[in-house]
Write a structure and sequence with these properties.
alpha/beta, 42% helix, 7 strands, 289 residues
Length: 289
Amino acid sequence: DTLDSGAGDRVLDADDRLVVPGFIDAHAHADGAVFRPDAQRALLRQGVTTVIGGQDGVSYAPGDGAWASRYFAAINGPHPTFTGGSVADLLATYDGTTPLGVGYLVPAGTVRHAVMGMDASPPTVCQLADMTRLVETGLADGALGLSTGLDYVPGIFAEARELAALCTPVTAAGGLYVTYMRGGYETAAAAGLAEVAEIVRMSGVRAHISHYHVDAADGIRLIDDLAARGVDVSFDMYPYTRGCTLVAMALLPPEYSARSIAEAVALLGDPDERARLRADWFPLIADKP
């Protein structure tokens, strides 16, 4: 169609160019980087105009932002101005301060940490109610859904029934459950997908799988199988076989990530503990797919 120009319109010559809407980077971990001019240029020059933060269950809000900033320092980076508060307070820091649009997912690990710390136990009824209220408030503040990172702490401690309860207000709000599935991907993807399907069944939520790195043909078949069973699920996939994460998450038991850095370093300095890891832990992760 031809659009007629009007007074004050700016006309750009787009001959020999492609004109497309701005792309959305669905998994950028740019929660803090969107304020940096170099990160802005890198995204905008690729046509990305919006990023989705709050991924993998860990980001700054709700709460004081301190724990998430320490734990995900190598992934999300620091936020230059946020010193704590609600999801609405965090979203306000992006308004008018960056040329990029920022959407946000309520991070379930941050919510769990705010209520339970690093307690690996299932939540009590009162704790689960407190966590659910934080999710509801985040959605009312403008969040697009809920995210989990089920190989990170404290998300690794959360069972499917707990996650389904947190997804219930997401369903009511028409939001999305976005998950870094449990247990990695590749040949272990079927087990992670089974848990996603269970959460969807219990809560009625729409699900989206982050960085679904698995053999393409087999991976699509698994997704099609879920869709045939009525599971509303989508995914994003990058076209290479490598990933990026925290070294401690991939190499050390979860209880290390639940400790402070000083405590973890002191524990690794114990010869008996190192012998235990060599004998019992490292053979386990060496056999992981």
